[in-house]
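Marked as duplicate of an earlier ticket. Keeping the data here for the record.
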Amino acid sequence: MLMFNPLIQVPKKLRANHSIFTQWIGRLLLKLTGWKIIGVFPEEERIILVAGPHTSNWDFILALTAMFGLNVNVHWIGKHTIFKNGLSKIMKKLGGIPVNRTSPELLINDITDIVKRYKGIIIAISPEGTRKKVTKLKSGFLRIAQETNGKIMLAGIDFSTKCIHLSELFHPTGDKDEDLATVQNYFNKFKGKRPEFS
C-alpha cells in the first residue's frame, strides 16, 4: 500500500508538466497538512476519476494540491458558474472543464476534444454535482467513460484519516441504478469535510 511516491503512483503517460516548484509546493502542503495519497493510477491512457464524497470547497483545494504534488495530468469538471467573473482563464489553465446542466451534450464535446490532445489523461468528476447531501448520484461519468472509451476509477476522500484513497478500476454492469448504488456505497466508507453532507 503506497502512501506517497509520485514516480511509482503515476505512470509516465499520465504525468503532467507542472514546474518543479509547483510540484514541490504541492508535496510540501500535503506534508504540512498531514494528507496522504494511498494507491496507484493504472497503466491506462484515459481514466475517468470519480471522486467523493464532495462536501466542501476545501475538496477543490485538496484536489489541486494532490494534482500538483503527484504531477498528474488531471482535467476536472466543474459547474459553469465558477468559471465566471474573470476566473475562466485561470480555472481552465488549472484543468477545469465547465459544465452547464442545461446543455450537457456540450460537455461531452468539450471532453472529447480535450481527450484527443493527450496520450494520457485523467478526467475527474464529482458525481454528487453539489457540495450538499444528495439522495442519488448523477450518472454522467458513465456516459463520459463510454463516449471517450475511458476506464472508471473511484477515489475516496477521507477527512477523518486525511487520506485520499485511489481504488482499483470500476467496471460498470450496464445497470445504471446498480452502478450508482455501488459507487455510493464506496463513498459511504469515507467522511467528508462536512460529514453531515456525506
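See parent ticket for discussion. The mean pLDDT is 87.
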